Structures are given as C-alpha cells and as structure tokens.
Amino acid sequence: MLCSKIIDVLNKIAPESFALEWDNVGLLVGDKNNEINKIIIGLDLTNEIINQAIKSNVNMIITHHPIFFKGIKKITDSPESKRVIRLIKHNICHYAAHTNLDICQTGTNFALFNLLELENMQGLEDLKYGFMGRVGQLKNKMMLENFANFIKNKLGLEKINFYGDKNAMIKKVALCTGSASNYVYFLLAKKNNCDVYLTGDIKYHDALLALDLNLNLIDVTHHASEKIFAPVLKNEINKYLPNMQIICEKYNDDLFHVL
Fold first, then answer.
1. Cβ proximity of 188 and 124 under 8 Å
2. Of the residues 39, 90, 171, 212, which has the maximum number of CB atoms within 10 A of its CB?
3. Cα–Cα dist 120/26, whole Å
4. Percent of the chain scored above 70 by pLDDT?
5. Would the pTM count as exceeding 0.90?
6. Which tens digits make up the pLDDT trace of 214-244?
7. Element (H, E) at 49
8. What is the rounded CA–CA span in Å between residue 216 and residue 198?
9. Mean pLDDT, to the nearest integer, of 10-16?
C-alpha cells in the first residue's frame, strides 16, 4: 500500500489540521509514494525504534513526538541528522501525529482516560476542532493517596509524585497527557470542579500555584502518560486497514531511573 494511502487514514483518525500552530506533524521523512508493507508505532523516533524497524523489516515508523519541531538547515553529524540518514538509507518513512493525536477523539487523552477506568468523558480545554485533555469521574470515591497508588499500578510505575492532601477524597478527575502543567490547565481543572489534575513534568513552583487553588496534582510522568497510545492507534488504523501489519515499539523503562 502506498504511504499516501496510510496518511489518508491517519488524517481520518487525527487530522493534521488539528495540530497546534507550533507543532510539526505529518510525513517528516520519506516519499509518500513509497510502498508500505509493515508499520511500527512508538513514542519517539529513537535509535532503538529504528533498530527495531530495521530488524522487523518495517518501512514506516509512526511516532507521537516529531523528530524535529523547527526547520533544519543542515544534515550532518548531529544526533537528529544521523537518525534521518539511517531512515533514508533503509528507505523508512517517518510520520508524526502529535498535538492532533492529543486532541482527536481516540488519541492519547482518550487512551489514558480509559486506562484509568473513568466515566462520563468531557473535554478539559475546548478548542475549535476538539478538546485538549479530558474530565471524568471515578466509579467510587477514593483518597488521593489511594488514587495515586491505583494510577501507579495501572501505568506500571516504580514511583509516582502527587501533591496535596493525601487524605482528600477524589471523585472528579481532570487529565492531560504529556507536559501540560501550567496555570491555565490548573484553572480549567478548577473551573470543572475537579478534585485532582493529572499530567507530566510538574515543576515545584507550578505545584505551589496549584496548592494555592486547593487543587491536588498527580505527576504520572510525560513518558508514562503517552506511551500507552500505541496499541490504541494500532487498533484505529486496523479498522480502516485490517490487513496492514502493525507492531508497537518494545518500550524500555522511562529515561529516568529510580534508586
């Protein structure tokens, strides 16, 4: 199947037009007229996923994060350049679905929402073409510490950071995958009367701002909040292309190790 046909399917799932202005999505490396027989889906375009693609005879890599966000002027010996050269050498296309996948109906936020068994899905931030983040409710109330432990087990984490009163009762939950830890999202969570807000990459001073709002926080890490998207996207693509071979990246642990 031509790469262009797969791109058409991806645009049905997560239209490139949904991406935020600063983002860089779509086909970033390769020829849209290439014949694609096998796809691998992963979070980042690392050397590890390229190795897995080469070993598995994959000719298209779909990642959440693009290899570069801004225009590049040189393809030399930088780490990004070397990865691009490897892709071209092995005739592998690279496609990125980033904020458009966050926003779309069955993207990253949808995946995390369902994994945490939340109910009554609503959008957190209302955009002109969809929602960034999600709001939902737990089936049964639980204390913040217990909810954090529940998430830790669901995501297979070694540790989890949470901020606020560990005995606070949690019922309504706001979440946004990736790194959405600014004050705007805290205010949106409060506006939706949420008891806790989940995201990744929460900084110390941001946590202080949330505590001023009496908003509990849980940092599920950037990596853990988004790596769960691959099987969901695989299933969505196979709804349109049931015969396409698709594999998911074999993830190692998060980049940060815990002692």
1. yes
2. 39
3. 31
4. 98
5. yes
6. 999 999 999 999 999 999 999 999 999 999 9
7. helix 47-55
8. 9
9. 98
Count the helix, strand and coil residues of the chain and give each as a percent rounded to the nearest 5.
35, 25, 40
DSSP string, 223-255: HHHHTTHHHHHHHHHHHH-TTSEEEE----S-S
Query: What is the spatial distance between Cα 196 and Cα 203, in angstroms, rounded to a whole number?
Result: 16
Chain-centroid distance of CA 126 in Å reads 18
Q: If 0-12 CB within 10 Å is exposed, 13-18 middle and 19+ buried, where does residue 59 land?
A: buried
User: Stretch 17-23: mean pLDDT, rounded?
Assistant: 95
Q: Which residues pair with 199 in a beta bridge?
A: 219
Which residues, other chains included, contact 128 with Cβ-Cβ below 8 Å and sequence gap of 6+? none
Distances, alpha carbon 235 to alpha carbons 69, 197, 245, in Å: 27, 28, 11
d(Cα 245, Cα 239) in Å, to the nearest integer?
Answer: 12
CA torsion through residues 101, 106, 108, 109, sign: positive
- Angle formed by the axes of helices 229-240 and 3-13, to 10°? 110
